[in-house]
Amino acid sequence: MATINSSSQIRLNFDGTQVAGLFDLTDIEYLEQIDVKVDGGDWNLYTVDQTRIEFYPQGLPPGLHHLEIAVKAIDGNGDRWLPPLRSAIVFSGFELDSTARVEPRSSDGQKPLIEFLGDSITQGEGILHNGGQVINSDALATYAWLTGEALGVTHVQIAFGGLGVIRSGSGNVPPAPFSFAWNFAGSPADFSVVPDFILINLGTNDQYSSAEFVPAYTKLLREIRQHCPGTVIFAMRPFHGESFHGDDIANIVKTMNDPRVIYIDSSGWMDAGDFTDGAHPNVPGSLKAAAHLQEALRPYISRWRPMGLSN
Fold first, then answer.
1. Are 186 and 252 part of one and the same domain?
2. What is the model's pTM?
3. d(CA 226, CA 302)
C-alpha cells in the first residue's frame, strides 16, 4: 500500500508480543515520519529510513493488542504524484512473532467518515517550524486531525502544500478539481465507500481574480458531487479569507442552492500570533481553530445516522 498523504492510518489487532513494520524504500528520496501507538498509549515517532522497523523491541505483554500507525508527515519537496513516487510511504506489511495471531479488525462502520480537503495548512506543513520538510510538519497537530478526534469520527486529510483550485500543489499534484478523484497518477480513488462529510479549506494559494476562481471552485464542488452524491460538503472560508476568496466561496455556496453544500465562516477564529509565518497555523493556533470548527460541525455530526443525516 502506498500513500502520499500525511495523516493516513493503518490499524492492526493481533495477539502477540512482537510487531515490526515492513516498508519499500525503492525510489524513495525523502525520509518520511510516522507515529505509532499500541493499546491507546502514547504516540511514538519513527523515521521510515529502513525496510524493517521494530516498533516495540522490548516486547509487549502477552494478549490482544491494538496497534495504530498514523503518517506524521510526507515531505513536501519530493515528487509524490507521478510514479515512481519519490516522496511517499510504501507499506509492505507487518511481521509478527511466530505464535502471534491476527484478529478481526475493529469496524469504523458505525462512525461517520469526514475527509478534510486542503493545502499545506490542512496537511500540517510548517506547523512546528517554517518550511515544508518532514521535521517541521505534523498532521496530527492540525486543526483537521484535532477536530476529527474531538468529534469521534473516522477522519482523513487529503492535502498538499501549494494546492489550490487553480494552482497545482507541490510534488506535481494537479489542482484540486483534477486531483480529487485520484490517489496519485494512475491510481484512481476507490469510491465504493464515500465520505459522509467533506470539508474544503482551499483558496489561500489561489491568488487569482474572482472571475478565474469562482468557476474553478464550482468545478471542484461538481466533481465531488459526481463521485459522492449524498455527501455533505462544507465549504470553509480560508483562515485568511478576507484576502483569499472568502466572500467568493460564500457566494458560490449561496448560488449553488444545494442543501448539502454548507458554508463555514471562519472569520475571527485566529489572530496574528496563531501562525508560524503569517500563513501556516502554529500548534496553539490549530487548537484554537479546531475548537471553533468542532462547534460548527457538531450539529451536523450529531444528526448523522449510518445511512446519512437524520431529518
1. yes
2. 0.95
3. 25
Q: Which residues make Cβ contacts (< 8 Å) with residue 266, sequence separation at least 6?
A: 236, 237, 238, 239, 241, 246, 289, 292, 293
Pair 205, 217: CB distance under 8 Å: no
* Total tally of structural domains belonging to the chain: 2
Q: Which domain holds residue 221?
A: 113-305
Cell 495523516 belongs to 7
For 111-149, write each residue's pLDDT tens digit: 999 999 999 999 999 899 877 789 999 999 999 999 999
Give the model's pLDDT for residue 59.
94
List the CATH number of the domain containing 203: 3.40.50.1110
Separation CA 159–CA 30 (nearest Å): 18
Please answer whether residues 16 and 97 qualify as being in contact, where contact means their C-beta atoms are separated by less than 8 angstroms.
yes
**What are the tens digits of pLDDT across the range 63-101?**
999 999 999 999 988 999 999 999 999 999 999 999 999
